[in-house]
């Protein structure tokens, strides 16, 4: 990333992307599912609410805007099921978070994975049309999420290599199509790295026949090859998440085990990392950024899981602490995750959400003045 690009994104005050769904949108989606309104009527309400959301993001001081993922139920399943050969379906049970379980939804691979078209291209086109002078940022799940979350019907693929080859080509196709529509800021969201943070996650890898080293190589290869053909003026960041559902999480642990790979082995332009509490460990893993002087780290020091504001001086002190391992000019600030990774949303109010965003902007203006 050149110095010129950092003036565009990631910004000193940035955000992960999803926002709490307003009551009107929740009501409309329920009406649609009950066949009380048409798909066109739902889309009209989504368009109107996204337009309002973009204005609020700009009013709060953000320079990049998203559609808040307002058209999605899930941050990942909705996108992945839009690829050729992938279907959304009802499962026997939901995903398990600390003390809570999600709805019983999932995705399955029923045919060869590919990209011919994707309905979310239109989602970006609308966002771009209302972004104005802000940068329209689009968020998609990592290709790794299909491997770690999808069931594969027997006989579709004879081995993982075939699956990954098709998955990478599909992502390359989508990214190029998104670029052709004007996208210059893409964020890839990925929880697969967090499987290497804890004993629970490592046990899950073993069930797939992988050890930590193999999993890291696989995840890095998939990301790098998926973005390998992106045009030079398209900036790609990645958010490494530890789970975010109804203000709960899946895993804890330091970045240490994955630090050499994510800071030295990924071809992304920036990393959004969760550092909002003790579950994330300390900043020492950032020392590996010395291998990538062009990599930007967006410190997720403001939590999206609860409404209480962090002490601004303490946040600035933590930014200063991070500079022991990474130069200030390579650091930025954001909430640790989105506010609504699924349509249920985290447990805080919309006003608390916006005060969090304004808090990020105010602190960043002071820390990088």
In the CATH scheme, what's the topology name? Answer: TIM Barrel
Text of the CATH class: Alpha Beta
Number of domains: 1
Strand order of the largest sheet: 1-6-8-9-10-11-12
Structural class: alpha/beta
Runs with pLDDT <50, length 5+?
Answer: 1-7
Alpha carbon gyration radius: 19 Å
Give the helices and strands as they follow along the chain: HHHEHEEEEHEHEHEHHEHEEHEH
Percent helix range: 25-40%
What CATH architecture label applies? Answer: Alpha-Beta Barrel
Average the pLDDT over all residues and give the rounded result: 88
Count of individual beta strands: 12
Question: How many DSSP H or I helices?
Answer: 12
Gross morphology? globular
DSSP strand content: 15-25%
Q: Major sheet, described briefly? A: 7 strands, parallel
Query: Span between N and C termini?
Result: 21 Å
Domain Cobalamin-independent methionine synthase MetE C-terminal/archaeal: 15-344
Pfam families: Meth_synt_2 (PF01717)
Enzyme class: transferase
EC number: 2.1.1.14
Verbal overview:
This protein has one domain: Alpha-Beta Barrel (TIM Barrel). Mean pLDDT is 88; it is low at 1-7. It has 369 residues and is α/β, with parallel strands linked by helices. Helices cover 38% and strands 17% of the residues. Helix 10 (256-264) links the parallel strand 9 and strand 10 (270-274). A seven-stranded parallel sheet has the order 1-6-8-9-10-11-12. The protein starts with a helix and ends with a helix. The longest helix is centred in the N-terminal third of the chain and has 21 residues, at 39-59. It has helices at 3-6, 23-33, 39-59, 77-80, 120-130, 144-149, 160-180, 199-207, 212-226, 256-264, 312-322, 350-367; strands spanning 64-65, 84-90, 96-97, 100-101, 105-114, 135-141, 150-152, 185-190, 235-240, 270-274, 296-302, 331-335.
């Amino acid at each position: 990333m050149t110095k010129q690009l950092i003036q565009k994104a990631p910004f000193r005050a940035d955000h992960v992307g999803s926002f709490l769904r307003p009551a009107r949108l929740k009501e409309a989606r329920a009406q649609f599912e009950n066949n009380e309104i048409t798909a066109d009527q739902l889309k009209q309400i989504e368009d109107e609410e996204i337009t309002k959301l973009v204005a609020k993001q700009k009013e709060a001081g953000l320079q990049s805007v998203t559609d808040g993922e307002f058209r999605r139920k899930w941050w990942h399943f909705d996108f992945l099921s839009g690829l050729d050969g992938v279907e959304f379906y009802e499962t026997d049970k939901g995903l398990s978070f600390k003390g809570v379980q999600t709805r019983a939804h999932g995705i399955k691979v029923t045919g060869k994975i590919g990209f011919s078209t994707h309905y979310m291209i239109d989602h970006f086109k609308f966002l771009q049309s209302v972004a104005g002078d802000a940068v329209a940022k689009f968020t998609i799940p990592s290709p790794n999420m299909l491997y770690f979350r999808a069931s594969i019907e027997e006989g579709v693929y004879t081995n993982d290599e075939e699956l990954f080859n098709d998955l990478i080509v599909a992502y390359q196709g989508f990214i190029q199509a998104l670029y052709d529509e004007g996208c210059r800021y893409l964020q890839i969201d990925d929880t697969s790295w967090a499987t290497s943070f804890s004993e629970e996650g490592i046990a899950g890898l073993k069930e797939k026949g992988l050890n930590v080293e193999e999993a890291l190589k696989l995840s890095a290869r998939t990301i790098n090859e998926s973005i390998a053909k992106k045009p030079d003026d398209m900036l790609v960041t990645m958010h490494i998440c530890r789970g975010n559902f109804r203000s709960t999480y899946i895993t804890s642990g330091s970045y240490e085990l994955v630090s050499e790979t994510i800071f030295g082995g990924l071809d992304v332009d920036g990393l959004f990392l969760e550092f909002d509490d003790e579950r994330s460990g300390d900043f020492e893993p950032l020392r590996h950024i010395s291998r990538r002087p062009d990599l930007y780290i967006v410190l997720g020091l403001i939590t999206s899981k609860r409404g209480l504001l962090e002490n601004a001086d303490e946040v600035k002190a933590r930014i200063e602490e991070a500079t022991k391992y990474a130069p200030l000019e390579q650091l930025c600030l954001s909430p640790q995750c989105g506010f609504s990774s699924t349509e249920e949303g985290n447990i805080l109010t919309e006003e608390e959400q916006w005060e969090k965003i304004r808090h990020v902007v105010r602190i960043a203006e002071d820390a990088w003045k």
